[in-house]
Amino acid sequence: MARPSRSVNARLAATLVLFGLLGGCDWINDRIGPAAVERGNRVDPEKLAQITPGVQTRTDVEALLGSPTARGTFDEDNWYYISARSRIQPGRFLEIEDRRVVAISFNRQGVVSGIRELGQQDGRNVQMVSRETPVPGTERSLLQALFGSIGRPGLDRAGTSPTSLPGQRAATAAR
């Protein structure tokens, strides 16, 4: 059996070294890559500990934590402080490093009734739907097909489109 030549061995060694160096690029990118971006209203744990259910009101909570990121859609008595730390990697999707949601609920008098932190297990993955919304007017019914051309200029006897429209000269007459 013939042994591979030195050039084949050199190419193989160079390829292995190249893959090793490229693997290190990810490590370098993590160290000196783009900075993390904070989004939303990150709640300070020390300030959150100052809120006692049954004592503070909406005004107190807003003064302490700031305005909420979102309020309940159907119930204004639920406030949500949502924050995320993300990093954009070149050639990749947005990478979420940390996500935090603090939900504060109030009773009818506007006093804090509960505080809870929602984690990733409390969220739901929303799947994209590939269906398309039909656009009205693109499909013709049987009656529209039968009676739709009444009052509109149609095809002439040769099966071609009309030569002129009202207010325009005929294309064949101009030639």
TrEMBL record:
The keyword Signal applies. Keywords: Cell outer membrane, Membrane, Signal. One of its GO terms (biological process) is protein insertion into membrane. InterPro entries: BamE, BamE-like, BamE_dom. Transmembrane segments: none annotated. GO terms for cellular component: Bam protein complex. Residues 40-115 form the Outer membrane protein assembly factor BamE domain. GO terms for molecular function: protein-macromolecule adaptor activity. Residues 153-175 are annotated as: Disordered. It comes from the Bacteria. PANTHER family: OUTER MEMBRANE PROTEIN ASSEMBLY FACTOR BAME. This is Outer membrane protein assembly factor BamE. It comes from Neoroseomonas oryzicola. The lineage of its organism: Bacteria, Pseudomonadati, Pseudomonadota, Alphaproteobacteria, Acetobacterales.
